[in-house]
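re: ur question from earlier - yeah i can do the single chain one, its not a big deal. heres the input i used so u can compare w yours
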Amino acid sequence: MNPEKERWVLLVVLSVIWGSSFILIKKSLEHFNPYEVGALRVLIAGILLLPLAIVNIRKFPKRHLKWLIIAAVTGNFIPMFLFPIAETKVSSSIAGIVNSMMPIFVIIFGALFWKFSTSKRQLTGVAISFTGACILAFSGGPGGDLKLIPVLLLLLATLCYAVSTTTVKAKLHEIPAKILSAFVFSFVLILPSLLALVFSGFFTKLEPNRDLFIGLGFVSLLSIFGTGLAMMLNYRLLNISTPLFASTVTLLMPVVAVIWGILDGEKLTFMQGVGGCIILAGLIFLRAKPLAIKEIPQNTEL
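and the output i got, formated as tokens:
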């Protein structure tokens, strides 16, 4: 598959996976507290990817260790806790709209720290899609009850994603996607996530029962697909595209959330349909011309 077609396929697949993560987080919160959900999500992914990390230990980027830690903590640790904490106070539609601001943070952070350049056309495309995401999130739902602290937590999580995305593109592009994902979750985040479980009291109240196993089922789905697999695909997308293009996955997530709502018995409102069409229009606008990121080689290995 040529890189142009592959990046759009990855964008759609990631949108489906991460767009479904909101409902899995909510289902997991019915059985665990937010800290347990975040820690379990990271720990399960780390355990599953540990064999791959061990096999490729010789490729561990010692000279880029600080960048690996920054990418891991900002992209795969802090947000895993902030989203569940915030979603105990705000609706998934609010979480989706705040998360849709990631391309804006990528533009700001990338320009300030990594000198990434963008075109006016791409900025216009982001603005169009963000407008559509706003319409989609605030139409036909109880999303109008904004609470400052949870929204600020969501903004912080989204900013963290932008920091991680631009750092991976600028400093870790030479590491194959699946190996980078394995290093991040296994060598960097297993111990912190295990400690988070200990301090959350998870093991002191652990009792084998139906509620526990159902909760673990939801968190496992969230971890395997929404964390481990999704981050591999995301790193691959960063290898063959740009941080801004990769971040537009957050603009498609609200569309997936609406589809989940329909499958759960909700009706699609006219304004939700309008918002979805506007999001797609913005993405078509983005397709016209890739970002110019100089002196960063492309890695085609997954």
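Residues 141-145, 290-302 have pLDDT under 50 and may be disordered. not sure if urs matches, ping me
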